[in-house]
Design brief:
35% helix, 12 helices, 4-stranded mixed beta sheet, 366 residues, transferase, kinase activity
């Protein structure tokens, strides 16, 4: 939606650019709840993925939540409402957990959800000077978590304020090292424009494949993006990897990581409780999941894996170390509800890193 841009109350751009930028064309608020199977059975679309819904369906699901909440004595609140979106989760994780300076490029509205997004991200140290204020509603998403921690997402982006491709400037990217992007057909024009300008500014690109539905339904433009040679790092989970190679004789994770590595310097396929497989050049590594905890909520697991992996790349660590830190950070977020890591779970992550001899962020060192 090409909403009118308003004078922003956010700070002007800092002279020193964030090391990592996230492109999320629409600010997004997640409503995360643990629910019983019967609610998931009522909702259209496949369980476990992400499918766009209209505002009426989003409001219907939110109303239905009250009668389908799973009792969880450990959770102080049955529904967590928080700044969300895959990219926001990743850059917030980098800032809070690893103290890598990060910022976000996108648009928000001056409504309840927009103010919540800004407050949450800014209070966690994310640079919001590239976030544009526009007239209209802020995007929302319902994240439904089942009894075993799997999450089903229903985002509502209709009529939400959105950054447009022609609003991007070189100044948005100058001085940064990485741009984090999530594949989405609704944002394809702005994604292409951001990648083009970022590459002109010497910024490396990290792409997440988003969901198996997105890969299945919009495979052709995704392949064009990968084949452009502009994507330096690509993350896929196991379901997305299968969709990417659907119809091929061999569609296992090894084949998928090999396919992605033909087009990207670094290719990573995450395998949930089975860890991950990654390739860089001729090197292939397999790293087990860390922690061995039953997931309370898988929301944000891939996003926080990316936070840890990118921290490793920024620090110049080996492929195996990047994967191990990604496994630690991905394991930290699944221990509680929502895509934001709690202070206790960050401490759990640092302990895991220490035990495995992985380089801790500088602020953790005595």
């Amino acid at each position: 939606m090409g909403a009118e841009e308003l004078p922003s109350p956010l700070p002007k751009k800092d002279k020193k650019a964030p090391l990592v930028l996230g492109l999320q064309s629409s600010a997004l608020v997640d409503h995360v709840a643990r629910v019983d199977w019967s609610l998931l059975d009522q909702i259209s679309g496949e369980r476990g993925g992400s499918q766009l819904v209209a505002i009426e369906e989003l409001e219907h699901i939110l109303n239905e939540l009250k009668t389908h909440i799973l009792p969880t004595p450990d959770d102080p609140s049955p529904i967590v409402t928080i700044a969300g979106g895959s990219v926001a989760n990743t850059v917030r994780g980098m800032t809070v957990g690893f103290q890598v300076t990060s910022g976000i490029i996108g648009a928000f509205a001056d409504d309840e959800q927009g103010r919540l997004f800004v407050h949450n991200m800014s209070s966690n140290g994310v640079n919001l000077s590239r976030l544009r204020l526009k007239k209209g509603p802020t995007a929302q998403c319902v994240c439904l978590v089942d009894a075993v921690g799997n999450r089903t997402m229903r985002p509502c982006l209709s009529n939400a304020v959105r950054l447009q491709a022609d609003e991007l400037t070189r100044e948005d990217f100058t001085g940064s090292k990485w741009l984090v992007v999530r594949y989405a057909i609704s944002s394809l024009e702005v994604i292409r424009a951001a990648i083009r300008i970022a590459k002109q500014e010497g910024v490396s690109i990290s792409l997440d494949l988003a969901s198996f539905e997105m890969v299945r339904n919009f495979k052709s433009p995704l392949l064009e993006l990968l084949e452009s040679g502009d994507i330096d790092l690509c993350f896929a989970n196991e379901d997305e990897a299968k969709e990417l190679l659907r119809g091929e004789q061999n569609a296992d994770p090894e084949a998928a990581v090999g396919f992605l590595a033909k087009h990207c310097q670094w290719a990573v396929v995450t395998l949930g409780p089975n860890g991950c497989i990654a390739k860089h050049g001729k090197e292939i590594v397999r790293v087990p999941a860390i922690g061995g905890t039953q997931a309370t909520d898988a929301t944000g697991a891939g996003d926080l894996f990316a936070s840890g992996f990118l921290y490793g790349l920024v620090k110049g660590l080996s492929l195996e170390e990047c994967c191990s830190i990604g496994s630690c950070s991905g394991g930290s977020v699944i221990r509680s509800l929502g895509g934001e890591v709690t202070p206790e779970n960050w401490q759990w992550m640092y302990k895991q890193m220490e035990v495995k001899g992985l380089p801790l962020p500088d602020f953790c060192k005595p």
